[in-house]
Amino acid sequence: MLSRPKPGESEVDLLRFQSQFLAAGAAPAVQLVKKGSRRGGDTNLDHPLLQDHRDVVTLDNLPDLPPALVPAPPKRARPSPGRPPPEHEDPEERLNRHDQHITAVLTKIVERDTSSVAVNLPVPSGVAFPPVFHRSQERQGKSATSGKRSIFAQEIAAKRVSEARVPPVREVVSTLDPLEGAASCEALTPREQGYQLPWGSHSFQGPNLVTGKGLRSQDAEQEAQTIHEENIAKLQAMAPEEILQEQQRLLAQLDPNLVAFLRSHSHVHEQAGEKATEEQRPGGPSVEVTGEEPTVPTSPSEPRQEDELEPEAPALAPPVTPHKEWLHMDTVELEKLQWTQDLPPLRRQQTQERMQARFSLQGELLAPDVDLPTHLGLHHHGEEAERAGYSLQELFHLTRSQVSQQRALALHVLAQVISRAQAGEFGDRLVGSVLRLLLDAGFLFLLRFSLDDRVDAVIAAAVRALQALLVAPGDEELLDSSFSWYHGALTFPLMPSQEDREDDEDEDEEAPAEKAKRKSPEEGNRPPSDLARHDIIKGLLATNLLPRLRYVLEVTCPAPSVVLDILAVLIRLARHSLESATRVLECPRLIETVVREFLPTSWSPMGVGPVLSLHKVPCATAMKLLRVLASAGRNIAARLLSSFDLRSRLCRFIAEAPQEMALPPEEAEMLSTEAFRLWAVAASYGQGSDLYRELYPVLMRALQAVPEELSTQPPQPLSVQRIASLLTLLTQLTLAASSTVPESSSDSAEASLSATPSLITWTQVSGLQPLVEPFLRQTLKLLPRSENWHALGPVPTACLLFLDAYYQAWSQQPSLCPGDWLQDMERLSEGLLLPLLHPPTLGSLWDSLRCCSPLCNPQFRVPAPEALPSLVSLGCTGGRPSLSLAGSASPFPFLTALLSLFNTLARIHKGLCGQLATILAAPGLQNYFLQCVAPMAAPQLTPFSAWALRHEYHLQYLALTLAQRAATVQPVLAVNAALHHSMVLALLSRVLPGSEYLAHELLLSCVFRLEFLPERASGGPEAADFSDRLSLGSGRDSACGRGALLVQACQDLPSIRSCYLTHCSLARASLLASQALYRGELRQIPALLLPVPKEPLLPTDWPFLPLIHLYHQASDTPSGLPPADTLPVSLEYYTEPPEDNLALLQLYFRVLVTGALCARWCPVLYAVAVAHVNSFIFSQDPKSSDEVKAARRSMLQKTWMLTNEGLRQHLLHYKLPNPALPEGFELYLQLPSLRQQYLQRLTSGMLQNGVSET
């Protein structure tokens, strides 16, 4: 077999291959066949195929030069063997006659006679643009012989065919819908039947459609009349039955669009004839009827009456008169000028039908019947052109426009809509959530794509929309105003909890180990869309948002508003979690750009007025970003101080007074405030203490200016916040002076960082108290005047917290005499604190506790109207009521700080405990406690309620701790003791994560404090009833008197307390972190970011935890008897009737599958759960809802796929309860036939769908 030529072989090689092939004499792969002439009609098939000799290529006789380019000889036809050309015809002439070259076309142009052709204008439509035919749509009436012609050619051919085959209007006898089948004569109206039959009332005067126009002959009209007469003759010769049969055949064959056109044409001619008839009558009315379609009814339930036509607007006239010299205005296309007409009248909504929401350019929701002028730019040429405003769908469409101005405008309007929606402006006027609708439509990634735009205006609009979506201004204002409260710098992460994420996912009843395995892969492998469904912030971070924001800040140098929006977005990302804050910190060149561009140490003086650029100008928002990052963890704070030269920035912005900075006054005040707060956050970790010695004169000068600033009435809000931040900084520096270096055996970097000794000594801060105490005295004078008191904000609170830290640090100095600080405490109490305890002074504050309590007022815990599980927000955009915990008139910040100071003084000076405890006798506090212990539903944990309840629980804890200290010194009334003990038990069930130290202290002191027990050792009626009913063992000891059990329990309180501390133990790491926060151990504080508040620390039934543990121990022993056979009532009372609550059934199934409920621990509940789940999965009630049927099918499928064979056997083969058996119920040895068939049918369907048993 010969090989094929290979690359690189020359012509010589090809000739050699050819010689070898010819010498071999092999059969060729193809044969050269001479076919007959194409012009011939039929080819002689019997003639054998002609075979020519092979063409052999030779290169020997070829010339060296190519031939000259001379005109080719005349082309002549080569005669075919089958059909020679005729003798009388010249082949050249014949070839030229059939030549299709372009020159032949250009030289044979024949102009068409169009003098008699009428110009038909396009039919006006109600839409802005004609509908575009898409290739995916099937065109009705498509010809079967269209072949491979283009869509345009097919449309043109169909139009020509319809124009050529249009029959006279009298031959078209009906316009019935062909989809409804063949029509009968009864389906036609009498008027149409008159048109169909030749003997009707209609007169055949002449053709209506075939007029002869366009024909070149002079007798065109006569030709059309002849055709018309032939048609009439044919109709008259046909019987009525034949006519009807022919009608049905034509209706089945003709295009429905063609039939509709013929009918409308006939209707126009009929109206014209009736009009002429009416004009001929003397005195007849003249009514103009147009061929427009009737008005569509507003309600979809109303039938459309096509025979009732309303008078429409006059014919469309062009706005200007065109001139001949105008370009392209020789033919006026009126349908294209339809948009110049006046808008149609606004349709009034007559029904309760929902209408599409439309918004103004400022994001305002427009009423459906509002009539606005057109110059506002709210009318467009989309749907419902008469209605002003843009819908969300139209705004989404504009964001993808090729015109950058339209993209920017759409994003701007969407940002305004989001801001108003979060503020709750839409209320109940909209159905559903605007934010949820936008996010489901992909708005989040639309913003991300818009950030990559090349146009600065679009980028600015996208950043603004992103800021409106992520940042709630009310949240930042709330967190900033509470920074100087009791532990106000500590905040919860603004991230969804794990429970919210699991609720969004499909219900899965996997065991905890299996669920952990399934969730073990890193979230970085999940697509951003999946992440954003559960957590918007994580979804955005997965799209490389941070590098893009850095590029916009560093390269594009955007406008000041864009810079502020980007910094606000970064702050929101940092508040999300420690992980997000770390990613912001580690983004390449992001923090360097922020510090270099927006926190420079030198800048040009800035005056009052708008700023053209924020680059190279100090910005308070940039300082706040660093403060929020530092709050996320002590390591981040240390890296910020060491790697980004923040010490020099803090010295620069603190050393100069705000009024001396070359910045606008408000910006200078906020910049100084944020600098104090950043330093305070660093000092809360024991860092940045070295700056105190450098800036000591500056701090003293700032403290000396405080009395003058507070004397200004009313005080400036920004100045008040700056003073409070300064006092908070001094509080943390004072605590740093009292901290001792812990002994650490670990060599880790964090341990060595924590062991760094403080650079502040007690002697450096001991002189601050004489300066701060006068501030407190000055502010307390304004307490009777509520308006002036509220204007002071957190300044009195910050003063009290500083004194608390001061005396706490003073008492921890081993080298000082205790008598000095004890004497100073007595001076402060007698001169300042004890006079506050008189009722007229603090009475109004105590009385307002119930009004401002989120625990007593559930309306304060309602989620925000646009709250989303995937985007956590405090929901404070709409403002805060003055009488609320976060309001300006809230008594909680001041009273909490006052109780904290009282506890510190009572702990250090035992002699002051009794005098200070009289504050607990305030009627307002007692009434508040009574309402808190009243039966109520568990408070709903929303982001705002968790923040507010945490501050409320601080006040309760401090008050109860002070009561416990006082109870050891002097007796208290029994009613107060019982109230305080009930309050302790209620608080212990409500304490949130981050307050583990408080829960531990309550268990350690207040809960098992004998002084808090109202019965003490004597007991009361309750103890007597308890003693009568309680029976230990088979019989009761007759020697045991009334109250003996209570006496024994009171003697065993220490051991009972140890038991509860063992079984209610909290995570050690969380307990140590919380202890460091509340004790002021600064070097042990890991972060100022609290855990996510999923639920309270302890379960609601925490008092029964030791009993549950004891029961489990008894069940595990061989002597433990199952209680199923010892029930006082029959087990059937718990299993009948079958449970129909779907939520409870799902809970039964979940605890069974996850192993939370097993027969070994609780046989009775296990038997009840198995009985109800078995009855549910095999029930086949036809009246069940679709949700119940789907849940039943899913539960049975999961039961069949269980790997726990014992539980699978119990759930599938349960028969009836039987307490005598170890399981507590009987089992089927083999399933009944109906259940077996149902199970087989279900499992076979699962296998067909690709679900395996494993």
Automatic annotation (TrEMBL):
<keyword id="KW-0539">Nucleus</keyword>
<comment type="similarity">
    <text>Belongs to the RPAP1 family.</text>
</comment>
<feature type="compositionally biased region" description="Low complexity">
    <location>
        <begin position="285"/>
        <end position="302"/>
    </location>
</feature>
<feature type="compositionally biased region" description="Basic and acidic residues">
    <location>
        <begin position="512"/>
        <end position="531"/>
    </location>
</feature>
<dbReference type="InterPro" id="IPR057989">
    <property type="entry name" value="TPR_RPAP1/MINIYO-like"/>
</dbReference>
<feature type="compositionally biased region" description="Pro residues">
    <location>
        <begin position="64"/>
        <end position="74"/>
    </location>
</feature>
<feature type="domain" description="RPAP1 N-terminal">
    <location>
        <begin position="225"/>
        <end position="265"/>
    </location>
</feature>
<feature type="compositionally biased region" description="Acidic residues">
    <location>
        <begin position="500"/>
        <end position="511"/>
    </location>
</feature>
<dbReference type="Pfam" id="PF25766">
    <property type="entry name" value="TPR_RPAP1"/>
</dbReference>
<dbReference type="InterPro" id="IPR039913">
    <property type="entry name" value="RPAP1/Rba50"/>
</dbReference>
<feature type="region of interest" description="Disordered">
    <location>
        <begin position="496"/>
        <end position="531"/>
    </location>
</feature>
<dbReference type="InterPro" id="IPR013929">
    <property type="entry name" value="RPAP1_C"/>
</dbReference>
<feature type="compositionally biased region" description="Basic and acidic residues">
    <location>
        <begin position="267"/>
        <end position="281"/>
    </location>
</feature>
<dbReference type="Pfam" id="PF08620">
    <property type="entry name" value="RPAP1_C"/>
</dbReference>
<dbReference type="Pfam" id="PF08621">
    <property type="entry name" value="RPAP1_N"/>
</dbReference>
<dbReference type="InterPro" id="IPR013930">
    <property type="entry name" value="RPAP1_N"/>
</dbReference>
<feature type="region of interest" description="Disordered">
    <location>
        <begin position="59"/>
        <end position="97"/>
    </location>
</feature>
<feature type="compositionally biased region" description="Basic and acidic residues">
    <location>
        <begin position="85"/>
        <end position="97"/>
    </location>
</feature>
<dbReference type="GO" id="GO:0006366">
    <property type="term" value="P:transcription by RNA polymerase II"/>
</dbReference>
<keyword id="KW-0804">Transcription</keyword>
<feature type="region of interest" description="Disordered">
    <location>
        <begin position="267"/>
        <end position="321"/>
    </location>
</feature>
<feature type="domain" description="RPAP1/MINIYO-like TPR repeats">
    <location>
        <begin position="1124"/>
        <end position="1183"/>
    </location>
</feature>
<protein>
    <submittedName>
        <fullName>RNA polymerase II-associated protein 1 isoform X2</fullName>
    </submittedName>
</protein>
<feature type="region of interest" description="Disordered">
    <location>
        <begin position="33"/>
        <end position="52"/>
    </location>
</feature>
<dbReference type="InterPro" id="IPR016024">
    <property type="entry name" value="ARM-type_fold"/>
</dbReference>
<feature type="compositionally biased region" description="Basic and acidic residues">
    <location>
        <begin position="39"/>
        <end position="52"/>
    </location>
</feature>
<feature type="domain" description="RPAP1 C-terminal">
    <location>
        <begin position="356"/>
        <end position="421"/>
    </location>
</feature>
